[in-house]
Amino acid sequence: MAEEKACNASSPDAEANRQHNEARRDFLKQSSILTALALAPATVLKAADSKWDEKVAEKFEKVPLTLEINGKKVQLSVEPRVTLLDLLREQLDLTGTKKGCDYGQCGACTVHSDGERINACLTFAVMQEGKKITTIEGLADGEKLHPMQEAFVKHDGFQCGYCTPGQIMSAVACIREGHANSEDEIREYMSGNICRCGAYSNIVNAITEVKNGGQKV
Amino acid sequence: MKQVGEPMSRVDGRLKVTGAAKYSAEIQLPDLVHAVLVESTIAKGRIKHIDSKLAERAPGVLAVLSHVNAPKVPGYAQRDHPTEPSTRGQPLRVFYDDKVYSNGQPIAMVVADTLERARYAAKLVKVEYTKEEHQTNFHANVEKAVLPSQAKKNPKSPLADYVRGTEDAYKTAAIKLESEYVMPSETHNPMELQAITAHWEATDKLTVYDKTQAVKGTQRAFANEWKIPAENVKVIAKFVGGAFGNGLHTWPHETAAIIAAKKVNRPVKLMLTREQMFTMVGYRPYTWQKVGMSATPDGKLTAITHEAIGQTSSYEEFTESTLQQTKMMYACPNITTRYRILPLDVSTPIWMRGPGEATGAFALESAMDEMAHQLNLDPIEFRMRNHTDTDPDKKLPWSTKYLKECMQLGAERIGWKNRSLTPGAVRAGEWQVGYGMGVGTFGANQGGAGARARLLPDGTIIIQSATTDIGPGTGTAMVQIAADALGITPNRIKFELGDSAFPNSPSQGGSSTISSVGSAVKEVCFTLKQELQKLGGAAFSGAKTENVMIGEEGISLPGNAAAVSFADLLQQHQLESLVVTAEAEPGKERRHYSLYSFSVHFVEVQVHPVTGVIRITKIVSCADAGTIINEKTAANQMIGGAVGGIGMALMEAAVIDHRYGRYVTKDLAEYHVPVHGDIPKAEVIFINKPDLISNPLGTKGIGEIALIGMAPAVANAVFNATGKRIRNLPITPDKLLI
């Protein structure tokens, strides 16, 4: 019972919020339809039939966004609530970046933003305006794997492969940050990337080898 | 060069490190839409009303479905409770009626054109309930535990009460112990969230890209649900992002996605949230155990009584082999086991890596350590004194058993000689140091499996079987097996899996994939050679098939006699390619033996006496698993099991707030699994001696024994470090400070 009360206690806010959103949407719909009406009355009936009002409203709800993803500049129009992770996976077919929790607790979605590792699930795409995003798909040099990718294959730094892109992106940043000077330091600074298969020893071996190899990462 | 045993890098490694491997929520299909589930917020009762108006009006929404309006699933059993044979029965019938069996049960679903829109609209669905009083508290309800129906029907069932010698003989012994142990619920939580992309390609033709450990089993399940022929259901699982058992069953969310795809007539993608992974796809059941044990002063076991009660749901009986190893592990004249299940208002559990055996081993191997301590004996010596050279349960010889060797090798490697018989005697600075070990065992299972091989004119060989790879490196091992069977280099062979259209294979469970599918692959390679020999005509007809050599471009006999190219052979017989199939069944000789894999896990721990912080400083796992096909991937699997066992020992517990019957640990910040910082370098030792009774490859299986026995090893090490015996997992610092 206490639980229901708790729900009720918070609901007026939520309700007001919802009403606000709905109102805003209705306003957008009406104003855009009015605009359309003023400009081209003949098309309006047809527009309503095809849910064009929705489509027009949708335009107002999206914001322009420019990103450089894996070296390519992309111009997008996205809803502000779309996370970088969902943008990559659902709209750009860059599914190498994985969803493991959506709360920044597992690291599967680790990408680089202007060279720094971030959890793509913890940032709205629009917050990355103008940034250079690198995903696992952009790490290799064409057909030539990045040294960290090579090392993960060699040391079997994965099993199911699902956390792997995040581990690799994190590992590269870990070395760049200067946090790979010992196995213990690697373990500490890689602890945001969970591997449920438990390939940790092998991942540490891979990172150690790349670090000691002195190759540019 | 022989490939089996080589540490070959994974054949799919490149796909995994470049992000090119596609998992089940990563399939692009035209007109694909998204489904999001709405869960119950009560643990028991009925749905009074679902108000979906707001959700339906929300932008982009195509459908809001629940039991009120969802298309009927024709194969749902029309009885009150869906229980069928235990565990294999029909799971919760999603959107079937207004009944709520557990908190977090899927009760409605929104389908929309984008994920964000579906997620938003799902929050607008309002549900009213008629609540009933729920029971989720294990200990408050323990009196209601029952014998599983399988055991009621069949007193010879492995789940039935078992007495060898005198019942409860430990009670009258002079040297005895009686201890109770608790294994909390654990959730598999693979990194990939459970996901399915469902697509009705025609009204009676279904294709699903699904996270499953059994493409054939899933195909059968959906064919039954939708009353369509199995061949009309295509199940694809090329990559599975971990599963650890929760892909052994089909779950309500899968049927929900299929219902959605039917309703909106478009492909539907559904990926669970991390919270939903706690309530919708099974878990290791909360289990209470009691061990009574007695021994002679010189360390011979005289009796063990092992009882267990495992949690299940109110609508399905889930059982597992919690007590099996107690019947066979040690030479002991008097054994009693009693297994019960306790139905609660929760979702149904499912086997989780090293299923019941890992739970049972925690109790048995902890008790062995307790008894060794009581006798002032080294725990390894105590186990050596109770070693058995035949299976005392089945009264059969072991096919192979190198358990003693495992103990010796592991003890050496961990530095067992540094262990003191007296707890708390060894220190490293301010930290207390302890050593512990635990034994694991699991049946060396094999199921019937098939494989198909296709030879192309350029000499490429494609082998297919409807198995899956949840991470052990199935494809890599199969390529190695095939390379040896054909005598060619691995890069000529491609192994394909994860498609229900391929020849039959059992689910990837019970540590049996290499034994089952590997045997079929070996067989199909031989069949391919036979066929090539036949096609070769007179020049080859007198030769032994074993002597037919497969080269880069064609076949020949020793000394390059009678060489003929693949292209010519195929052309002569007007074939585009040569396709053969074969099946491998478990050998009859297996019946005369008892077949088990064994493992011994060793750990060194340090415990901080002021804070109770426990750190694992060394891990050594030794396995008697028969032939090791790939040293690198097999060792990885062992390390992974050890990590899982450490999670079990030190951190994992899915906790319910019984006021609401709802999990309070619903994400990875609350439900802790081991991270990099928790795990030191782990060492693995393989005995690597073939067990040719098991199958022609000599394998016995690794997946489960990698974990079974690790949790007690840690608990025993903590006792050795501190003198504190924790029988209630996980061993968190607070328990050491009390």
Automatic annotation (TrEMBL), chain A:
Protein keywords: 2Fe-2S, Iron, Iron-sulfur, Metal-binding, Oxidoreductase
Gene3D superfamilies: 3.10.20.30, [2Fe-2S]-binding domain
Superkingdom assignment: Bacteria
Residues annotated as domain 2Fe-2S ferredoxin-type: 63-139
GO function term, MF aspect, one: metal ion binding
InterPro entries referenced in this protein's UniProt entry, alphabetically: 2Fe-2S-bd, 2Fe-2S-bd_dom_sf, 2Fe-2S_ferredoxin-like_sf, 2Fe-2S_ferredoxin-type, 2Fe2S_fd_BS, Aldehyde_Oxdr_Iron-Sulfur, Beta-grasp_dom_sf, TAT_signal
Designated name of the protein: 2Fe-2S iron-sulfur cluster binding domain-containing protein
TrEMBL record, chain B:
Keyword Oxidoreductase: yes
Signal sequence coordinates: none
A GO term, aspect molecular function: iron ion binding
The UniProt record lists the keyword Acyltransferase: no
SUPFAM superfamilies in the cross-refs: CO dehydrogenase molybdoprotein N-domain-like (SSF54665), Molybdenum cofactor-binding domain (SSF56003)
Keyword field: Molybdenum, Oxidoreductase
Limits of the Aldehyde oxidase/xanthine dehydrogenase a/b hammerhead domain: 18-133
Pfam families on file: Ald_Xan_dh_C, MoCoBD_1, MoCoBD_2
Listed name of the protein: Xanthine dehydrogenase family protein molybdopterin-binding subunit
Organism: Pontibacter qinzhouensis
